[in-house]
Amino acid sequence: MSLLKLHDLYFKPYIHKDEISAIVKRLATEVKADLPKGETPLFIGILNGCFLFVADFVRAFKGECEISFVKLASYEGTSSTETVKELVGINEDLTGRTVIILEDIIDTGNTLQEIYTIFKDKNLKQLKIVTLFFKPEVYRKELPIDYIGKNIEDKFIVGYGLDYNSLGRNSSAIHQLTPTPKMKNIVLFGPPGAGKGTQAEFLKEMYHLVHISTGDVFRYNIKNQTELGLLAKKYMDEGDLVPDEVTINMLKAEVDKNTDANGFIFDGFPRTQSQAEALDAFLAEKGEQINGMVALEVTEDILITRLLERGKTSGRADDTDEAKIRNRFNEYNTKTAILKEYFDAQDKYYGINGIGSIEDITKRISEVFNTL
Ligand code: AMP
After folding, report:
1. Cβ distance 102 to 54 under 8 Å?
2. CA–centroid distance, residue 241 to ligand 1 (Å)
3. Centre of ligand 1 from the C-alpha of residue 236, in Å
4. Domain spanning 186-369: which CATH class is it, in words?
5. pTM for the complete prediction?
6. Can 271 be counted among the known catalytic residues?
7. Which residue's CA is the nearest one to ligand 1's atom 12?
8. Is the pLDDT of residue 67 over 70?
9. Is 310 a catalytic residue?
10. 296 phi/psi in degrees, rounded to 5
11. Percentage with pLDDT > 70 across the chain
12. Residue 85: is its pLDDT beyond 90?
């Protein structure tokens, strides 16, 4: 789950699709349990926002039912307006029927009032109201609501059918309005030896960012013989990746140490798809995001020469043995290189020619940084 940008506004993950699914199933079960045996209810969805809710609800409802829709408008922008109009009405004869209204969200209750008015003189057997979400803080009516999926705070939400100026309905999770992100977060990407660490040293000064190198954090822990260091050492010495769970928890702890940072340069992280997803979700919870992945592109023969050269002075066991180096490339090619597509799909991938002088490459990177 990552931050969602719709028009000019940002929305952060709020209710996961699995939670929504559980709520919808519970509602369908409760409604069914309260119906007299043999009763065929007519479910009426209030368009547009309810379409996903109705689709999931009626499939979770075990029993015979009819389904129809009415269309009313109550939203303009992000604040509820006072005027609610009926746009498309109901034509069926509803005499003696059990009508169950399916609403995606009830806040002030204006729409609900309209619904009660519309159905008052239709000679129903009974009228029941089901709403997926309810905002108790702003509800101003005395009208009964029979089933509530989840009470939520009074913040604008989108997703699962709900929109902000027509966008966002197709997200399967619910997102909540959040202030514009303040940080600049960059993933500095590339195979071992591409020059990420070297470049990060310059860039962190130029842009006042915090540099987090997961490799450096592991090496620091190994040097200080911490539990984490002992665990990581056996993987690192072979040129294997340290398990995701360990690395992700360590990365989160490093980020949380720097609560007032302008942003981060992530160097050596993420290195797997699940690390990338974890990073997206972690930043999104804070109302932040990755602005871009800047990748240093260097051919493998040049990289091997560079690493063997570095191994003469770096004291790194994984830089001296060519077989270990090859294994690091193998890890990179099988687990890490795919992240190019992951960020490309979000329009966040920026490839940079990583061959040339250190200053030239810094210049190339900063041209991209300035646009992010
Ligand atoms: P580096 O200094 O970035 O070349 O990292 C050196 C070694 O640390 C790697 O070969 C891995 O064993 C381990 N490592 C660093 N970052 C990660 C990561 N994101 N995921 C798994 N292992 C990592």
Report:
1. yes
2. 6
3. 7
4. alpha beta
5. 0.84
6. yes
7. 236
8. yes
9. yes
10. -90, 120
11. 95
12. no
